[in-house]
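Minutes, project check-in
Item: structure for the 252-residue chain
Input as provided by the requester:
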Amino acid sequence: MADSKPRATSPVVWIIGALIVIAVAVLLLGGKAPTGGGYYGSSARATFTMTDAPPSMVAASSVYVVVQNISVHSMTTGQWYAVASPMKTYNLVALKSNAALLANATLPTGNYDQITMTVTAVNATVNGTVKPVKMPSSKLKIFGNFNFTSTANTSNTNWVNIDFRANQSLHATGNGVIIMLPVLQTSLHNNARVAAGYGGNATVQSQGSMSTSVESGMGVNGTMMANLVVPLNTTINIGANGMIGLGLGMGH
């Protein structure tokens, strides 16, 4: 008489089944899980670049910024995602005719409301002399509505370009100290084609369609605001306590 008891499932079968589930999840995420975790929707390829307009107020032959990391905040998932931690130095003056490739990333699709870039150091070469540049804050916060669309079945990308307007950002104090109040023009192009070029630059093969363009600027207190540009003829001083202020008597 045949044994009517159900047979126990082999552990090997359980392991194979688990591996299949993991493989399917990774494919749905475009081959890379977002660093924020906790989301398993469609994926969006994103490419981040940086350009610059040449400085005018300060006669600088070079302006070097050290980018420590870049992160984005999703309104769709409510999470932050680390895009890159390059800890790399970029010469903004060299980017007036080129675009630096900051990062490629795979992120969940949806709306993002903030891009944050941490700049740990800035220096400029003026008349052959390298000078440190003072910033009120190292956190550059870009606010806007950035809609990252699905790129799962294409070689296109959501191209984010951060135009670092050094010509509107550099200020010289009366005692020769250089102050940077960053002005950034940030745009998002959906369905663009951007390839890695020579020397860490990016080659834009197709701009796609621009869905967002926002301007952000930093005030003397380090706060980033939309459409904030401190005029270049503004009197900026550094008080005895090292604080940056506007006009005479500020920052003391």
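Outcome recorded: The two ends are 97 Å apart (CA to CA).
No further action items on this chain.
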